[in-house]
Every structure is written in structure tokens, then in C-alpha cells.
Specification:
It contains twelve helices and twelve strands. The chain has helices at 7-18, 217-220, 282-288, 309-312, 371-377, 446-451, 486-492, 526-531, 601-607, 676-682, 751-756, 799-818, and strands at residues 64-72, 95-97, 118-123, 137-139, 154-158, 162-168, 175-183, 195-202, 206-211, 228-234, 241-249, 255-268. Helices cover 11% and strands 11% of the residues. It has 819 residues and is low in regular secondary structure. The chain is flat and about 175 Å long. Among the domains are: 67-268, Galactose-binding domain-like (Jelly Rolls, Sandwich); 782-819, no CATH class. Strand 8 (195-202) and strand 9 (206-211) form a beta hairpin. It starts with 6 loop residues before the first helix and ends with a helix.
Length: 819
């Protein structure tokens, strides 16, 4: 029978169908307003800006918020996985490094994307820098760090082989945070020392955030290693500046990863006092009864005095006629339609349209000159094209200005009153002195007269010109025109103003004797000839100079000019020799064995021994005639030194385990604790410490040699489980060892049951007896007559027997299924 639905049930069903599911709104700033409706979706202090001027209608009291001013998660720069950055420059030169095509970016310009820009500076410390190709710059593989803390990318710095300094763009912020992941295998243990320094460099001061110089991170800050760590620092006190990361390392395993660098600024919002931007404050609109959020709803203000009519009435001139009916609201006699100020009885005209009536405006045409000045200067104060003439632009019109061109000379005394560059004309030729090149018109230009020390404004003052060549004496270098310069004549003792007086010149070389250092022009200075006893006034008399070095013999300390003074020269007259180290009479330059030790000088030079010391001989370890420094195989063992771990030991050349003992003498080449002879017999690699003989029971005997691999006391050939020390026998061959098998003979009865029932747990034909078939063996059964198989004496088997038989059959089937 179908029941009729109740009305309430139907109503609820209809409501569920009619009402759509509500979606969860996005509210980024958590202020309770959906982002779609929030004019400030990231600012919890405000949510509405009616007029769109950037100022909120209202602000939550005392509320401030932190705004992100700059950030980078290294998502914008070019990134490519599993590719190294390779510097193609000179690793010995410190410099800025730049991006290479198809390689990770190490620098970034913020004009490409919204994230912060950054630069990378490399400081050389003598290493290979990044020229050998290293994982450096922006990356997106996560094998080491798991996942980056923000986005897909990050920045890696590793294996610098020098010093790398990553610097972000300058920023002004109150706080910064960044995530870093540090991978380390031994800071402060290599040479040069590895370290990490992170700091904020500001205009006011620097803030040091991390500095590992002088200690080992492994022990002092081990919590940083192998995990992402967030660091937050207040940087406002530092002022405008930038984040700098300085990193030095020489191993790819010493790596720094950076991500999620964010700079924030605390912001305090200012409330908008005019929400609809209609020129009336919100408070005034409330008082005047208009809507402060509707720019079309403004207070009525008939007299335009900033006080709405609702607060002051609507009959401005009090003549009993309402303003909307009064043709002259201010009763100044000018109709409102012609009145620029219909509510101001003192004003009715504004010629220049500056908002000031002409009565109050002191410059009616707004041309920069007051009405009073224009009246005094003769221009029209109501015409902005009519302005006073003011030549010098000093604000005083010419009619009132005593010096129109402002050159410092009054117009009454100025022949050029409107030319600030001229005020005098000495020669009256109509050209002002400043433009006139000859102010006194005497034929000499003013500049020449000034240089010639005559008066340029006095026609009677002319320059002196002794030789009449047109160049005055102060500018003429040869006043008497005799071909000898004035300063030469003065130095040489002749008269510079008398052409008949010339300097003495014995050798006629153009240099007077008093200035000539070689009077007879024989190539030897007079002072040298005097010192060398030759005649300085006779060109045929010259100093004797045997070696032609320019020093006469009487003054020469090195007659053969070989650079060795004669007193120290074993061969003073032989320029090719100066010493004889071994005293054999042959100079060292010609002698091929200077120390007479039977080893040539060239050989000693090549081998690093001293060719001048007979006790210094080349080292020749293998006595093959080639000294060690040029011998590619010093010990003569057939292995070149570059490949020989023992280059001076002919019995050894390799040391696979690096224990200092050569493999020939070392009984355990890979230092894994297994002798080489044992490893050879056990089939493991004697040169690989990761390859060890299989030794299941760890008794020191490899399984190939061990008769009992699992060490359970049962030989492998008789052990059903040779690799399991807890098992060695499986009586019923069911794959489960007897120690773990609860039914060793597999007869369906547990070993414990068979033990309690006196049957043999190791014989599947020996099972517990149960005469009454109740599932309890006779030995444990307190009543052997209560089971289905029990038959009383002399009782003919009937239905009960049949039931008992069926029970037995069922039990047998059950046992069979268990087996």
C-alpha cells in the first residue's frame, strides 16, 4: 500500500531541488568579505572604495597589514634540468658573470617577469671557478632537496672553486624571509677555506644573517643540513639595500639551495573622508541629508559658500524672494545670468576666469602684472595681450625702470639703454666697446694692445716694436730681428735689442758657447774631455775609449764592457768571460761543466741541481742516466710516475685501498677485512671494497668454503634449510621446517595434541584414538560414551549407529580437508 506524502515533506523536497548548492567564497585576507566583492582583497583592514581613488571608505581601528613589496622563487628566469652552467671567461679574473644560451640563468633582469632581479659576481682565489662546468644557477630538479619550498624552481650554488656573490635588486622593506637547504661534507676543512655568508647590505647599516667563517657547520649548525630551513629577519633599520649571499666551496657536495625570498612592508591605511569624491565630506553630507557614497547626490548650496542650504536657508540676500525665484540673488544690481558671482554682492565680473572677482583681483587679466602697475606702465589691465614693456625682465616696466637693460648703467648715462651688453663707445664710431675690436681706433686691436701692455682706450698709447716687424716686443721672441731669440741672447750674454750683437758660437752649430756642452762638436762633452785629458776646443783631440762604451779608459772600470768591473773580472780584457768557477782556466761561459763534477751544466739545469756546486748532483733513483725530474718512470718499474702510486719504489705501483701499503705487499688490497687470497677463492673482487665474499653466518668463512652456511650445526648437504639457521629438518616435506611446523608428520593433528594423546607426532600413521568420535582423544576424554560413535554393548546398530557413522565420515572428511 502506497502512503500519501505529507505536505511538509513535499515542501522540503521542492526547496532542495530549487535552491542551488552554495560555493565556498575566496577570502584571501580573511576579513569576511569575498575577494570578488572586496576592493582590497589582500588587506584585512579595509574592503570598500566607493570612488576608486585608492583610499578605503573606512578602516578597521588600529589595523595594519604586511604587504609584499618584492619577491622571487626563481620561477621567471630560464631554467633547465640536469644541465651545468659553464663560465667561458678567464677564471683568474674577478668579474660579474652572465647567462649563457641554453644553460641555467645565474643572473636575471626584473624587466622580464614580476620576480626580483639578481646578479652574480665571481671572485678568483686561484681555482678553476665555474669554467669546469658546475650545477649553478636556477634549477628545477629535486633529487637532492626533495621538492622546492615554493613553486618548481630554486637557485643552487655549488663547487665555486673561488667565491660567488649573489646579490638581489635593492629594496626598502621592514622584514624579509627566505628558505635555504644546505648540503655539506666538510665546511672549514678545505684549502682555501669554504664558508657561507648571508647578509642584508643597507644604506644605514649591514645586517649579518649567517656567517660560517671560522667554524664547521657539521657540528655548530648541523640542524641546517639536509632540510629546508626558513629564516626571517627584520631589515627596516638597515634602510634601502639588498640581500647578498657570499659562498665559497670547492666540491659539488657542498651546495646551497635558495627559494621563496620575500620582502614585506607594514602598511597603515588612511580612511577616505569623501567616499564618493563629490567635493563634500562624508560628515557634511550626513548633516545635509545626502548620500556620501553617491557622487550624483550632492548638497544644495545656492550661495556656493560651502555650507549647504539645508543648514543656512535659501534666501541669500534676505529680500523675501527665494533664490530660485530671485533674478538677483545677491542684490548687487546685476542679473544672476550676467553675474559671475550671483551670491556675492561685492563681485559680479571675473575677466581672467581665475575665480576672483575683479574688485578683489589685483591682476584682472592674469598677465602677471598688477592692475596698478599696468595703469602706471600704460598697458590695459583688462587685456592679457596688453602687457608693460620690461626689457630686462626684472618685473619693473621700462616706464618705471631707471636701468631698462639692467646692465648697471642708468639709462640717462647709457648710449645703449636697451642693450645689456653695451654701455660705452670710447671712439664714438657707433660700435659699443664690448663689440668694438679697436676701442681707441689707433689701428691696434684691443686684444693685441692688452697683450702688448699699451692702453687700448688711448689712441696715443701704442705698443713698442723695436724691429718694426709688426709684432710688439712683449709678443716678439726676437726683438732686434737678428735671428737669435731674445731668451737665447740673454743666456748667451748678447744684447737682445741690438741686431749687431750676437752670441759666440765656436763650432757654428747654432748653440752659443755658454750653452753648448760640446764646443768643438767632436761628440764628446766639454766636461768629459776635461776629465779624460783631451782638448774641448779641438775636434781632433778626443778621449781614448778602448771598448767604445762612451767612457774613456781613464774613467772606465770595465775595459772589456762585459758588465763586470775589472777588479772582479777573471778575464778583464775578454768581453765574453768574467768568471772561472772551477779554476780550470776556461771561462764559465765556454766551460760546459762549470763545477767539474762530470755532469754537464745543461743537464744540471734540467735536473734542478746547482751547476756551480760540485757537491750538488742530480737525483737518479733508477740509475738509468735520466735524472728523476726528466725521467717519466723514476723507479724503472715500467709504470710511469703519473700513474704510479709509489714512483720511487720499483716493487710497488698501485695502492687500491689508499692505506699506504702497495698492492704487491698488501694482503688486503681493498681493505675490506678479507685477505686477497680468500677473496680469490671465494669469487669476490680483491680490488673492490664493496665486493665481499658471501658469508651468511658471518663466521669469517665464506659460504663457498663453509660446510655449514647458516651456522646451525647441521652441514649444508644434510640441512633442509641451509640458509636458515632456525631450521634444518622438514619431516613431512611441506616446505615448513619442523621447528615452525605445528604438525610435523602432516596427519592433521598438531604435535601438541599428539603429545598429549600419546600418538607419534613424527608418524603420520600414528593418530590419537577417539572411540566415541567426539573430537577429544580417549586419553584426554573424561567421558568416552558421549560421542556420536559410541555403541552400547549388545545393542543392534540402528539409526543412532548410522548417525554415528555419518559423524565419523564427516570427521574424516574434515581431517582430509585439513591435510
Amino acid at each position: 500500500m502506497t502512503r500519501t506524502a505529507k505536505p511538509l515533506t513535499l515542501l522540503l523536497a521542492l526547496l532542495l531541488v530549487a535552491v542551488p548548492y552554495a560555493t565556498i567564497a575566496d577570502d584571501s585576507d580573511g576579513d569576511g568579505v569575498d575577494d570578488a566583492l572586496d576592493d582590497f582583497p589582500n588587506n584585512p583592514c579595509a574592503d570598500t572604495d566607493t570612488d576608486g581613488d585608492g583610499l578605503p571608505d573606512s578602516v578597521v581601528a588600529g589595523c595594519t597589514y604586511s604587504s609584499t613589496v618584492a619577491y622571487t622563487s626563481f620561477e621567471d628566469p630560464f631554467t633547465i634540468a640536469s644541465v651545468k652552467y659553464t663560465d667561458t671567461g678567464n677564471e683568474s679574473v674577478s668579474r660579474y658573470l652572465w647567462n649563457n644560451a641554453n644553460e641555467p640563468h645565474i643572473a636575471h633582469n626584473q624587466t622580464n617577469g614580476s620576480e626580483m632581479g639578481f646578479t652574480l659576481y665571481y671572485t678568483s682565489t686561484g681555482g678553476s671557478g665555474l669554467t669546469d662546468g658546475d650545477y649553478f644557477g636556477t634549477i628545477n630538479y629535486t633529487g637532492t632537496v626533495g621538492n622546492f619550498s615554493d613553486g618548481n624552481n630554486g637557485y643552487q650554488m655549488s663547487d665555486v672553486d673561488g667565491i660567488a656573490t649573489l646579490a638581489l635588486d635593492d629594496i626598502t622593506a621592514d622584514e624579509m624571509s627566505f628558505d635555504f637547504f644546505l648540503q655539506d661534507t666538510g665546511y672549514e676543512t678545505s684549502n682555501p677555506v669554504d664558508y657561507l655568508v648571508i647578509r642584508f647590505i643597507g644604506a644605514n647599516n649591514d645586517i649579518e644573517i649567517i656567517n660560517t667563517t671560522g667554524y664547521d657547520i657539521d657540528t655548530d649548525n648541523s640542524s641546517w643540513l639536509g632540510t629546508w630551513t626558513t629564516m626571517t629577519v627584520m631589515v627596516g633599520a638597515a634602510g634601502h639595500g639588498h640581500l647578498e649571499v657570499e659562498f665559497s666551496s670547492n666540491s659539488a657536495m657542498e651546495a646551497l639551495y635558495l627559494d621563496n625570498i620575500v620582502f614585506t612592508q607594514d602598511v597603515t591605511m588612511t580612511e577616505d573622508l569623501d567616499d564618493d569624491n563629490d567635493g563634500w565630506s562624508d560628515l557634511d553630507e550626513v548633516d545635509c541629508g545626502t548620500d556620501s557614497t553617491d557622487s550624483n547626490d550632492v548638497p544644495a548650496d545656492a550661495d556656493n559658500n560651502g555650507i549647504c542650504d539645508a543648514l543656512e536657508g535659501d534666501d541669500y540676500d534676505g529680500d523675501g524672494i527665494p533664490n530660485d525665484s530671485d533674478p538677483d540673488d545677491d542684490n548687487d544690481g546685476v542679473d544672476d545670468t550676467e553675474d559671475d558671482f550671483p551670491l556675492n554682492s561685492n563681485e559680479w565680473e571675473d575677466t581672467d576666469g581665475d575665480g576672483l572677482g575683479n574688485n578683489a583681483d589685483d591682476d584682472d587679466d592674469d598677465d602677471g602684472y598688477t592692475d596698478v602697475n599696468e595703469a602706471d606702465c600704460g598697458s590695459d589691465s583688462l587685456d592679457d595681450t596688453s602687457i608693460p614693456t620690461d626689457t630686462d625682465g626684472d618685473g619693473v616696466c621700462n616706464a618705471l625702470d631707471a636701468d631698462d637693460d639692467n646692465d648697471g648703467v642708468l639709462d640717462d648715462d647709457d648710449p645703449y639703454p636697451e642693450d645689456s651688453n653695451e654701455w660705452e663707445d670710447t671712439d664714438g664710431d657707433g660700435i659699443g666697446d664690448n663689440a668694438d675690436t679697436d676701442d681707441d681706433n689707433d689701428g691696434w686691436s684691443d686684444s693685441v694692445e692688452d697683450d702688448c701692455l699699451s692702453d687700448s682706450v688711448d689712441a696715443n698709447s701704442l705698443p713698442t716694436d723695436t724691429d718694426g716687424d709688426g709684432t710688439c716686443d712683449p709678443l716678439d721672441h726676437d726683438d732686434d730681428g737678428d735671428g737669435h731669440l731674445d731668451d737665447v741672447e740673454i743666456d748667451c750674454g748678447s744684447d737682445a735689442t741690438d741686431s749687431g750683437s750676437v752670441p759666440d758660437d765656436f763650432d757654428s752649430d747654432g748653440v752659443c758657447d755658454t750653452r753648448d756642452e760640446d764646443d768643438d762638436d767632436d761628440g764628446y762633452e766639454d766636461a768629459v774631455e776635461q776629465a779624460c785629458n783631451s782638448d774641448s776646443m779641438d775636434s781632433n783631440s778626443v778621449p781614448i775609449d778602448s771598448d767604445g762604451d762612451g767612457t774613456c779608459d781613464s774613467q772606465d772600470n770595465d775595459l772589456d764592457n762585459d758588465g763586470v768591473d775589472d777588479v772582479d773580472d777573471a778575464f778583464p780584457n775578454d768581453p765574453n768571460e768574467s768568471s772561472d768557477n772551477d779554476g780550470d782556466g776556461t771561462g764559465d761561459n765556454a766551460d760546459t761543466d762549470d763545477d767539474d763534477d762530470s755532469v754537464t751544466d745543461s743537464m744540471e739545469d734540467d735536473c734542478g741541481s746547482d751547476p756551480l756546486d760540485s757537491n750538488s748532483l742530480p737525483v737518479d733513483t733508477d740509475s738509468d742516466g735520466d735524472c728523476d725530474s726528466i725521467d717519466v718512470d723514476d723507479d724503472g718499474d715500467g709504470v710511469e710516475d703519473s700513474q704510479d702510486d709509489f714512483p720511487t719504489d720499483s716493487n710497488e705501483w698501485t695502492d687500491d685501498d689508499g692505506d699506504g701499503t702497495g698492492d704487491n705487499a698488501d694482503t688486503d688490497d681493498d681493505n675490506d677485512g678479507w685477505p686477497d687470497s680468500v677473496e680469490e677463492e671465494c669469487g669476490s673482487n680483491t680490488k673492490d671494497s664493496d665486493s665481499e665474499p658471501a658469508d651468511l653466518d658471518e663466521d669469517g668463512m665464506c659460504d663457498l668454503q663453509d660446510p655449514d652456511d647458516d651456522g646451525d650445526g647441521f652441514a649444508d648437504d644434510g640441512d633442509a634449510f641451509p640458509a636458515d639457521s632456525s631450521e634444518w629438518s622438514d619431516f613431512d616435506s611441506d616446505g615448513t621446517g619442523d621447528n615452525s611446523d605445528s604438525d610435523d608428520d602432516g596427519d592433521g593433528f598438531t604435535d601438541d595434541d599428539e603429545k598429549n594423546c600419546n600418538s607419534d607426532s613424527m608418524d603420520s600413521n600414528s593418530v590419537p584414538e577417539d572411540i566415541d568420535g567426539d573430537g577429544v582423544c580417549d586419553e584426554m576424554d573424561s567421558d568416552n560414551t558421549d560421542g556420536p560413535n559410541y555403541v552400547e554393548a549388545d545393542e543392534t546398530p540402528g539409526f543412532g549407529v548410522i548417525l554415528g557413522t555419518l559423524a565419523i565420515l564427516c570427521a574424516a572428511m574434515f581431517v582430509g580437508r585439513r591435510q
